[in-house]
Amino acid sequence: MVSVESKFARAALIATVALIGLNLRPFITSIGPLAANIQDGTALGLQGMALLTLIPMLLMGCVAFAGPALQSMVGARRSMIGALLVICAGIALRLLASSGWRMVATAALIGLGVAIVQAVFPGIVKREFPRQVGPMMGLYSATLMGGGALGAVVSPMIAQVTGNWAMGLACFALPALAAVILAGVFLPDDAGARPKGGITRILLSRPRTWLLMSCFGLLNGGYASVVAWLAPAYQEHGWDAAASGSLLAILSISQAVTALTLPILAGKPPDRRLWLWLTLALQAVGFVGLAFMPTLSPFALVVILGAGLGGCFALIMIVALEHLPDPAQAGALSALMQGGGFILAAVPAWLVAALHDATGGYAAGWLWHLACVTIVAGLVFRFSPAGYARVMPSVAGPGPLYA
Questions:
Q1: In 3-state terms, what secondary structure has residue 65?
Q2: Cα angle 195-344-73, degrees, rounded to a multiple of 5
Q3: Considering Cα of 126, then 129, then 130, then 135, what sign does the dihedral take?
Q4: Where is pLDDT greater, at 228 or 279?
Q5: Residue 9, CA distances (Å) to 12, 185, 324, 331 in order
Q6: Does the CA dihedral 250-253-255-257 come out positive or negative?
Q7: Given a cut of 50, is residue 127 above it in pLDDT?
Q8: Closest alpha carbon to 258 in 239, 242, 278
Q9: What pLDDT sits at residue 290?
Q10: pLDDT tens per residue across span 239-248
Q11: How far is CA 95 from CA 103, 123, 241, 253, in A?
Q12: Which of 188, 197, 110 lies closest to 147 in space, CA to CA?
């Protein structure tokens, strides 16, 4: 019989997973609805605004490569708590971001914290929920996307009420502080389950790691561009900050719903390819609509696009974790996939801004992402679970790769 204490600890850990996910995207999605205010207040140009997405994405990529070594030296629990403190501090400092370089500096600081969380957290989930990896990664992904919706809706509301756009950005320090507290109380110790840095070299020598990086990067480049430029794109069609923010919020809610439900609908059979193709088809429809018919039915369009982005994110995270049975090794693979992937994903938001400056509109940028979706659809053929053990054999342990 499971004790009441055990049930409470389990529920508290699930709540901690949810709250941590909730804090990983508001710092990005709160920018778009307030873009005009931020530009007026900091004198950032369009490509300067793109740095607020590009730099965090680059950090998410670069820091993820150090994830396994960081866990080995510090431990997953301490890494998580420290990273959440960095996120909280970076968001709070946006109250003082009265210039462009200060805004970019806060983006870098928050991006550093988010990068550490994303590198470390999937391994924790697989270790603590070995039989519920799909649903728990779905929950984590859903709350991550839900946090994006929260950022898009709350930031313009707070800015309007207070008359201060910086307050609209900095208010998210409060849920970040709550996540620090829950992580400190409920995240379990991970002594004896720490991969050493040597596993990074082994995984990077395998072509499948690079394939996962490529797919993750091409997919998340679309997400980065959408959260950066969806609201400004519709503001060019006459929408105000609140209305364009609500559009971004609906997209994020659609992402959250599919991130939570698709892993459950996909069930236990490990072949996720049909579901991945479904989400890619939804993304294709969304980008075609943004490029050619953005005003025809905007809300339906963003629901479709959000469903594709959110479901695909959750499924590709699960696919990476399913390649290896050992939680530490699977977590290291997930960290590396995110590392290379987020480096790739950092560029498209800037590229869309450059294409906008060159063409006078966003259509060329959306078509670029349609091409990326098509490429990933072809690469997904290779994610047959029957071949996982062959292309990604487990690293023998315990041994020199374990602390």
A1: helix
A2: 20
A3: negative
A4: 279
A5: 5, 10, 27, 23
A6: negative
A7: yes
A8: 278
A9: 95
A10: 887 787 788 8
A11: 10, 34, 20, 27
A12: 110
| C-alpha pair distances (Å), 181 with each of 20, 61, 81, 264 | 11, 26, 8, 29
Q: What single-letter amino acid sits at 234?
A: Y
Q: Contact, 69 vs 201, CB < 8 A?
A: no
Burial of 273 (0-12, 13-18, 19+ CB in 10 A): middle
User: DSSP 3-state assignment of 388?
Assistant: helix
Q: Which tokens go with 175?
A: 């849920």
| Pair 340, 213: CB distance under 8 Å | yes
Residue 68: strand, helix, or coil: helix
Please answer whether residues 118 and 60 qualify as being in contact, where contact means their C-beta atoms are separated by less than 8 angstroms: yes
Q: What is the rounded CA–CA span in Å between residue 350 and residue 324?
A: 35
Residue 158's Cα: distance from chain center in Å?
Answer: 24
Q: What is the DSSP string of 223-255?
A: HHHHHHHHHHHHHTTT--HHHHHHHHHHHHHHH
Cα separation, 211 vs 341, whole angstroms: 10
For the chain, give the longest Cα–Cα distance. Answer: 66
**Which of 351, 293, 310 has the alpha carbon at shortest distance from 46?**
351
Which pair of structure tokens corresponds to residue 89?
């501090």
Please check whether residue 229 is in contact with residue 352, taking contact to mean a CB–CB distance below 8 angstroms: yes
Give the sign of the dihedral formed by CA 3, CA 6, CA 8, CA 14: negative
Q: How far apart are CA 49 and CA 52, in angstroms?
A: 6
How far is the CA of 402 from the CAs of 34, 59, 206, 337, 387, in angstroms? 46, 26, 19, 20, 25
CA 176 vs CA 23, 85, 229: distances in Å: 6, 8, 25
Assigned token pair, 78: 């301490």
Q: What is the pTM of this model?
A: 0.75
